[in-house]
Amino acid sequence: MKFTINRDLLLLNLMNVSRALSTKAPMPILTGIKIEARDNSLFLTASNNEISIQSLIQDRRLLKIEEEGVIVVPGKYFIEIVRKTESKDIDFAVFEENIVKILADRSNFSLNALEKDNFPIISFNDSETVIKMDVGNLRQIIRKTTFATSLSESRVILTGVSFSVDGRKLEVVATDSFRLAKKFMFLENEFFVSVVIPSKSLDDLNRIVDEVDNMVEMHFSPTKALFKYKNLLFQTRLIDGTFPNTSNLIPTDFLTSVKFNKNELISSIERASLFTNYDVANIIKLTIHNDKTVEIASTNNEIGAVKEEINLLECSKALDFQIAFSSKYFLDALKSFDSTEVTVHFTGEIKPFIITGEYDVNLTQLILPVRVS
Amino acid sequence: MKFTINRDLLLLNLMNVSRALSTKAPMPILTGIKIEARDNSLFLTASNNEISIQSLIQDRRLLKIEEEGVIVVPGKYFIEIVRKTESKDIDFAVFEENIVKILADRSNFSLNALEKDNFPIISFNDSETVIKMDVGNLRQIIRKTTFATSLSESRVILTGVSFSVDGRKLEVVATDSFRLAKKFMFLENEFFVSVVIPSKSLDDLNRIVDEVDNMVEMHFSPTKALFKYKNLLFQTRLIDGTFPNTSNLIPTDFLTSVKFNKNELISSIERASLFTNYDVANIIKLTIHNDKTVEIASTNNEIGAVKEEINLLECSKALDFQIAFSSKYFLDALKSFDSTEVTVHFTGEIKPFIITGEYDVNLTQLILPVRVS
User: Does B303 contact A at CB distance below 8 Å?
Assistant: First the structure.
């Protein structure tokens, strides 16, 4: 194998593929990047047990293949070499089956390759179900839901995000059973899909798909989802099992709905959370008074107490009402809105409440309150 | 105690004082900031076992004291409160001896104070020996020497930086016994001082003295050094003991002196270090050939090998010469120079070599090579 490639182009593609590099020792081969030179193209592939990424480089002005071949290089070191190199082009050649020579200006690297036969065989297969979506929409969906998934492995299904399409409606739901994030949108064609995608895979995908003007093609098969974006293939395993039915959880009758300026509310909650302990329960109390004043308070016996007053913009019904909840969950939810104003809809002092935003019409955030004395 | 103060002014001074806050549990009182309101001034003091910092605020337009007093507040929480507050001014009052009320706009904090009688009594006393120095010079001295101190506590004296003044010459030396950094400068008056200052204290000081236009006053007494800078007092303990005499260590006769472009040399060394292991010895080999070419190489049996060729700018004597040394030590030393060109002066394959720079006339970096087969 022998080729010459533009340094910046190679680095960019290596960075994308590197998201799938394994950092764990159990399978050393998964710390490698597979490089295939064939058909005037270069394929870079990395895979861990969760995701696989393949990048295809074909630009004939920036890539010149002299001899085809396959090799697996140690990912971390190969990327560092390319990153530290300042030359315009890099020459790449394989000697003695398993030594890679990398020449860049007056630098000369010999890198021991990994055993290529150990690299997993990965098929990036298209499915019959192909959903096309604007990258901007996909990023929104990911950013506004994944934070609400569970970190605990005790109910594995809740560590994923449910994507279900019934006809033209795509509904995306994440929940850790104490809070829930739900976003929906309408697609151009009809589909029937119901899958649960690992939250971490979606966050990895979100870091790679950066150019909002592009489209993403999503392929769903029974055990995996494939995302096609520009010259990249991003594949993730799916989580097996049935996602809980959450359609009846979201209340529709409210005691009162209170509209706030989002940023003022976030600042107040952040100050009220200063003495809460992130390790344990970070509970704050919100009190609405009959005269339409709102008070946010929290107490920590060791450190002290905070009391915040905040202006509400509108209130559908004046009443005396107190509720307690996790300030972290509330902040996570508030920060998922793009709207300047958000409305918190309360159903009772120990019943779940929801948050909506005027410019986030298809987004609902739900939080379970806690009972405090 | 009762006062009102400008929020930005308070935060700035708290940030400076916070460098001396202890983060360790053994003495909880040292996690506190002492606040004294008297004589129309506010004194903020923090201290750990190494350094003590006091900040004096006197601006009558920005500080209004209604009632004098003393209290010790939990440093971390107090700073977070002030940081998260958006109001122009903050009201501060003490209730029931040990509860601090902090009012800012519509936020109301109650903070439990620490037991003020436990706070150490710190005297920031002037000494007879007062050296005045431009902040820029002090920062240069710190930046170019502290990195060469020892991290090991086995010879405590080497964890400090030696400041000695004999007449008008100030000589600053740091060494971990494998490398040495030495900088000198001439003072306006004559002094006789010989102290060893903890390296970490100097790094802390460097982070606080930021405005190059100002002067620093240095006071040396037998057990501590006091730095006066703007409205700040920064005091550090000294390290007890005798610093090794290093005056004979620096060679003056050289086999050959080789001049390099500093940034090219740094890039080459960084690439040659890619396969070295930061945990173990990161040894690279430098070879000068009779034809005035220079080669830098390193090998790691597991990963591979690197060979770099680099242009030398000048060479006092052409010869065949090979030397091996720690790439980390060499990079640390090179980066301490402001010059575009640096000269490496070799005395022998297993003898210490030194580095100088054309615009760093008073700076010498010395490195001990290692013996390799």
Answer: yes
Disruptive mutation site among A271, A276, A302, A303 for chain B (greatest number of B CBs within 10 Å): A271
Q: Which CATH number fits domain A130-237: 3.10.150.10, 3.40.630.10, 3.40.630.30, 3.40.350.10?
A: 3.10.150.10
Would you tell me how many other CB atoms lie within 10 Å of the CB of residue B164?
Answer: 17
Distance from CA of A190 to the nearest CA of B (A): 49
Q: Pick from A82, A99, A106, A302 the residue to mutate for testing the B interface (most B CBs within 10 Å).
A: A106
CA distances from A13 to A65, A189, A202, A331, B274 (A): 17, 32, 19, 35, 20
Residue of A nearest to B277 (CA): A77
CATH class of B2-118: alpha beta
Buried b (16+ CB within 10 A) or exposed e, A83-99: ebbeeebbbbbbeeeee
pLDDT tens-digit map of A259-318: 999 999 999 999 999 988 654 568 999 999 988 899 999 998 889 999 999 999 999 998
> Do the domains at B130-237 and B256-367 have one common CATH topology?
no
> What ipTM does the predicted assembly reach?
0.88
Do the chains contact at A271 and B85, CB–CB below 8 Å?
A: yes
B269 in contact with chain A, both atoms CB, cutoff 8 A: no
